[in-house]
């Protein structure tokens, strides 16, 4: 990222992103400092993940329960205090698939703002996909060719297709790990995904996959064989790992692979989604940079500060 300053030394600024997903809510705090050579030094000050598991309420009953609403309010108060401790100057809080689908989302957001002082935006799948894409481009801008950026969440899967550095489409599918465990993924969503991937494979040869999300990061770390230099592993390795995880109970996965309970259940449907997309595209390798929506939110906030948009009255 390149910026210009009018005069004097640019000061570091601290940003925060809150990502409220279907499985967990994350707080990321980063300090961004422009350097004299036009680049930016980024320092991660804190990353906190709490498994609220909103999707299990929403995808089963259509609403967030009073208990989970209370936990959301408690957590947002904690996040607000942490942002004060780290002197955060600018933040953005975004909620994704579960909050998009819940019937009582707007009321809960109002109560959270009143109680915790945090304003939450419910973003659509297209904006979510675009922010994930923008962050990937920053981290992987030196790679040419055709890539599908796949971010698998609890409620949805975001897919961005980049051909030789140009974004050709961003799509969001209501296929996620929690939604799968709840048994509410509609067949037409899978058909839409399959049709889109089949069309990609037909028109563009040699498409690669760059995976995003906590599950693919964990699967990469669990893989016995991986390429640590370019952060990738074989689809065949993922398949073998999936075959090992599938027959195990959640408790057995926790014990054998040292997984937390909120990861041990969702990791299998996540692997299924990645394997399905890889199979449709005929991909042999998956790249796994450790980045996500929260990083994309902070990048967008920083970019807005560097290139503000002025609106006339």
UniProtKB/TrEMBL annotation:
PANTHER family: EXOPOLYPHOSPHATASE (PTHR30005), RETROGRADE REGULATION PROTEIN 2 (PTHR30005:SF0). InterPro entries: ATPase_NBD, GppA/Ppx_hydrolase, Ppx_GppA_N. This is Ppx/GppA family phosphatase. SUPFAM superfamilies: Actin-like ATPase domain. It comes from the Bacteria. It comes from Candidatus Avibacteroides avistercoris. Residues 50-300 form the Ppx/GppA phosphatase N-terminal domain. GO terms for molecular function: pyrophosphatase activity. It holds the Pfam family Ppx-GppA.
């Amino acid at each position: 990222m390149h910026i210009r300053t009018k005069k004097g030394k640019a000061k570091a600024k601290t940003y925060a992103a809150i990502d409220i997903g279907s499985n967990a809510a994350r707080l990321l705090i980063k300090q961004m400092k422009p350097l004299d050579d036009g680049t930016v030094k980024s320092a991660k000050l804190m990353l906190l993940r709490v498994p609220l598991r909103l999707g299990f309420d929403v995808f089963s009953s259509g609403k967030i329960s009073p208990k989970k609403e209370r936990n959301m309010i408690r957590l947002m108060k904690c996040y607000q205090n942490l942002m004060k401790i780290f002197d955060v100057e600018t933040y953005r809080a975004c909620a994704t698939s579960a909050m998009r689908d819940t019937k009582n989302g707007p009321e809960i957001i109002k109560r959270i703002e009143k109680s915790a002082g945090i304003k939450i935006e419910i973003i659509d799948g297209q904006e979510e996909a675009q922010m994930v894409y923008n962050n990937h481009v920053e981290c992987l801008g030196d790679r040419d060719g055709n890539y599908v950026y796949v971010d698998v969440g609890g409620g949805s899967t975001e897919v961005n297709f980049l051909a030789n550095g140009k974004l050709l489409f961003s799509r969001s599918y209501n296929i996620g790990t929690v939604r799968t465990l709840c048994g509410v993924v509609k067949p037409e969503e899978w058909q839409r995904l399959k049709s889109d991937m089949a069309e990609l494979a037909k028109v563009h040869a040699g498409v690669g996959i760059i995976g995003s999300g906590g599950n693919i990061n964990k699967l990469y770390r669990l893989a016995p064989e991986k390429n640590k230099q370019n952060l990738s592993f074989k689809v065949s390795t993922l398949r073998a790992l999936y075959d090992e995880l599938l027959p195990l109970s959640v408790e057995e996965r926790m014990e054998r692979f040292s997984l937390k309970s909120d990861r041990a259940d969702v990791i299998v449907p996540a692997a299924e989604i990645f394997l399905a997309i890889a199979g449709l595209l005929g991909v042999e390798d998956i790249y796994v940079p450790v980045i996500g929506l929260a990083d994309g939110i902070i990048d967008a906030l920083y970019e807005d500060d560097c290139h503000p948009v002025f609106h006339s009255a």
